[in-house]
Amino acid sequence: MDNGILIRTKDLVKVYPLGQQSITALADVNLTFRRGEFAGLVGPSGSGKTTLLNILGSLDAPTRGSAEVLGEKVETLSHRKAAALRNRHIGFIFQTFNLLPVYTVYENVEFPLLLLGMPPAERRRAVADALSWVGLADRTKSKPSQLSGGQCQRVAIARAVVKKPELVLADEPTANLDAENSHHILDTMETLNRDMGTTFLFATHDEKVIRHVRRKITLIDGRVAKDEALAGS
Questions:
Q1: In a 3-state reduction of DSSP, which class is residue 205?
Q2: What domains, with CATH codes, occur in the chain?
Q3: Which residues is 24 bridged to in the sheet?
Q4: 0.70 exceeded by the pTM?
């Protein structure tokens, strides 16, 4: 892949079987993202936003076509190599949090660093920084059940950025946050994007997120209907 290109899809198709029929979630999607982009996927429910994120994050594979991420073709990766790509280079923010309920806030955020084998002192610094970014430095010993939905989402965001990944894929990251927390988190993400070159790709309906992104891709029925640079990009 050319220098500066982080993601490239070519004629990407995803079809899900549904009984005797099938649903086409993505149809001939051709997109390129450069390193350091701050981009949003928008469109109605069922338009293919989450499916595209899952493929780019190597959580799913295309039915046809190609998705190349960080120089790796997702459709050719073994389970082990796909896991290594995710662990080392990609952070995920899920709408449903996906926190481990028996772990504390600290342990949930630390978990990706354990997978990387990071030394304890480095882990402590990284977790402290990430929790400070999202305003939860005082809740390290809390369990997810002791937090509000918005706080759980902030923990999920801290977990996604703690390893300072090259790519963050965020599925409705502000869905459970109020306006003040949303702006704080988006400002934090913009800082990471600016200072570390982290690439962010959002799937969102939230106008607050859309006002922050510098590129907006509209998906309708699994196809790219519009791809536009926004003012100030």
A1: coil
A2: 5-229 (3.40.50.300)
A3: 15
A4: yes
Q: Which amino acid makes up residue 202?
A: F
Q: What is the pLDDT of residues 121-160, one digit of tens each?
A: 999 999 999 999 888 999 999 999 999 888 898 899 899 9
Q: Which helix (H) or strand (E) holds 212?
A: helix 207-212
Closest to 62 measured CA to CA, from 91, 26, 8: 26
Helix, strand, coil tally for the chain in percent (to 5):
35, 30, 35
β partners of residue 34: 5
Quick one: tokens of 62? 């295309």
Q: Which secondary-structure segment (H or E) carries 170?
A: strand 167-171
CA angle 15, 38, 181 (to 5 degrees): 100
CA 139/CA 91 separation, integer angstroms: 22
Crossing angle of helices 179-196 and 149-161, rounded to 10°: 0
**Two tokens at 165?**
């990944």
The full DSSP string for 39-55 is EEEE-STTSSHHHHHHH
172 phi/psi in degrees, rounded to 5: 50, 60
C-alpha angle 45-199-109 in degrees, rounded to nearest 5: 85
CA distances from 221 to 25, 66, 169, 206 (A): 7, 19, 21, 19
In which residue are the tokens 């990071």 written? 118
